[in-house]
Amino acid sequence: MPAPRSFDYAIIRIVPRVERQEFLNVGVVVFSRTGHFLEVKIDYELARLAAFAPGCELEMVRAQLRAVETVCRGGAEAGYFGTLSQSERFNWLVAPSSTIIQASPVHSGLAENPAEALRALYDLLVARPGSV
Questions:
Q1: How far is Cα 113 from Cα 6, in angstroms, rounded to an integer?
Q2: Cα–Cα distance for residue pair 50/47, rounded to 1 Å
Q3: CA–CA distance from 54 to each of 8, 31, 70, 127 (Å)?
Q4: Which residues, in sequence order, are CB contacts of 39 under 8 Å at separation 6+?
Q5: pLDDT tens across 13-58, in order?
Q6: How many beta carbons lie within 10 A of that of residue 51, not counting itself?
Q7: pLDDT tens for residues 107-123?
């Protein structure tokens, strides 16, 4: 049995009106330095957002969420961000922001498998009841 490894995670949120500080959880990003792991899982079904914030530009939000995935993956597609280490990309993704896409404060945990931790956190913090 592999030893548990530490990881950090943040919840990806949509904040339609920053001044109101109301948000909708739409994803989770997990980083494990010792596990050489950085991945994000995002819910692109934005029906809840349409109900929560009528008038929000859903396609713009989807495009911004895809950009989060691209930065997380790195590589040539991510441009400048693709040249950064996993740690640097994670820190950039979770940096405080006053935009419609924001990250929660960073939390830590232990898991034998960071990918399984990502799925479990997504199911707990993002997935709609009955959809898992």
A1: 10
A2: 5
A3: 33, 33, 27, 21
A4: 29, 30, 72, 114, 115, 118
A5: 999 988 888 999 999 999 999 999 999 999 999 898 899 889 899 9
A6: 9
A7: 999 999 999 999 999 99
Structural contact between residues 70 and 101, judged by C-beta atoms closer than 8 angstroms: no
Closest CA to 41 of 98, 113, 125: 125
Half-sphere exposure of 130 (CA within 13 A, CB side): 0
CB 105 within 8 A of CB 54: no
Structure tokens at 29: 């990003």
Q: Are 32 and 118 in contact (CB under 8 A)?
A: no
Q: Are 53 and 43 in contact (CB under 8 A)?
A: no
